[in-house]
Structure prediction request, 253 residues.
Amino acid sequence: MDINSDLGESFGAWRMGDDAAMLQVVTSANIACGFHAGDPAGILQTLRGAAERGVTVGAHVGYPDLVGFGRRNMEPSSAELQADVIYQIGALQGLARAAGTQVRYVKPHGALYNTIAHDERQAQDVISAILAIDPGLTLLALAGSPLIGWARARGLQVVAEAFADRAYNDDGSLVSRHDSGAVLHDPQQVAQRMLQLVQTGTLLSITGQPVRIAADSICVHGDSPGAVAMTQHLYASLSQAGIALRAFAGSKG
Prediction:
């Protein structure tokens, strides 16, 4: 099983998360590309840390929305969206090369992630952008979403992910951040839920119903309060259960 987190999101004097600590306990790092968060110097520093730790790197692409942290819905034209995604991946590839590593996958961020999970037009634009710059990249996508089928139909390798710190509805969709109980904060609860998911392929929805989630990666949001402690508990719980932890697009080590 892979553990991923969103890193490289600090911007100038505005600090977001603890990248150095998270890189000790994740196997894949979704690195911001400057559109929703992140500045070049900070991104490069995080990439160097990932390279030192043998953590696999992915491009965390988003809408051009620094003020809204990429969580506001947008309707860019196809030409704009494709160019934006290509631009972000290309920028991260250059910084990664300077840091002694390489970009192996793409994980869209925030509103873009949620939109392309179900919006075919924007989904196809993101797929086209990835294919245009590097068809060998893997797409990290929401488990159970139509996006997975659309991407695979066009030849992209896709890995599905579950969210450790988010609650799920009975249909397997994520509970909206606007609803109470959408974000989980108890490290022990999160670790137990994810252990159950890995061992049984199911977890309990917000109403207590078992939900089947097919995922090969687990995400812990790096900007969540207590993210480091949560990921440490998750890493320890899975390791103690004998579950091998490794990146889906390259091994940590």
